[in-house]
Amino acid sequence: MAYQIKQLAKLAGVSVRTLRYYDEIGLLPPAYTGENGYRYYETAQVDQLQQICLYREMAVPLADIKQLLAQSPAEVVTALQVQYQRLLAQRQQLDGLLALVQTTIKTQQGGTNMSDSEKFNAFKQQKLTENDANFGEELTEKYDAQTLKESRQRFANLSEADYQAMQATEAQLLTDLKTKPALASPIARRIYQNHKKWLSYNWPTYTAAMHRNLAAMYQADDRFQSYYDDRAGQGATALLCQIITHYAQD
């Protein structure tokens, strides 16, 4: 069956303008254009639009969708499996947050009592889930599964005092980064030492090579760059990576 553009738009729940745009950028050309100038879409285009809508729901950029549609079925399956794992992590993150909010509401209403330890443990679990959702794939590429498992356990077992110390260490690190110190200065060395100390709250073991790998990941990922640049000023991430590379020697 061939659909005119308005019919397909209604079927898929998208606008006619969207379908026209997809045609303009070569993402979803019609099967053919009639003598009347109308676009017509057949089964192949319907199936392709279904894939596009799925990718859009997963917030995949249009440029990436175009590349995905050109891949082989096996490559598409691999890409979908990656997206599936990310969605699972996001769902776990939301489930944990919903549970924490629900418990907090009950506590505020006087329906239940939540100890300080329970509040803190729930918060730590939420942080772990959030970290997995945001950076799980990148960390898996850089570090082995056992190291990541032990790292998560180490963070989950932090006492409240250790967690506060971890936060204070990071706060000092960010304060020092804002001064944009010279690479060979005492402040730069303190930044390195505090970053190493901050990592020790998460990492079961430390090596200079692991530290340098982390710096490389910071430089390659805009999300890591934003984390430090937003807190310590533009260029803070690049400076931190230079300091790590300079001081983290075997």
Task: Tell me about this structure.
This protein has 250 residues and is mainly α. The chain has three domains: 3-69, Multidrug-efflux Transporter Regulator, Chain: A, Domain 2; 73-142; 157-247, Globin-like, CATH 1.10.490. It has twelve helices and three strands. Strands 1-3-2 form a three-stranded antiparallel beta sheet. Strand 2 (32-33) and strand 3 (39-41) form a beta hairpin. Helix 5 (73-108) packs antiparallel against helix 6 and helix 6 packs antiparallel against helix 7. The longest helix has 36 residues, at 73-108. 15% of the residues are buried. The model has no long low-confidence stretch (mean pLDDT 82).
Write the layout of secondary structure elements.
Layout lengths: L2 E2 H8 L3 H9 L7 E2 L5 E3 L1 H15 L4 H8 L3 H36 L7 H27 L2 H12 L3 H19 L7 H15 L7 H13 L1 H11 L3 H12 L3
Antiparallel strand pairs: 1-3, 2-3
Helix pairs in contact: 1-2, 5-6, 6-7, 8-9, 9-12, 10-11, 10-12
Counted beta strands: 3
Number of helices: 12
How would a textbook summarize the main sheet? 3 strands, antiparallel
CATH topology of the largest domain: Globin-like
What's the gist of this structure?
The protein is mostly helical.
Short descriptors:
3-stranded antiparallel sheet; 3% strand; 12 helices; 250 residues; Globin-like; Multidrug-efflux Transporter Regulator, Chain: A, Domain 2; mainly alpha; 3 domains; single chain
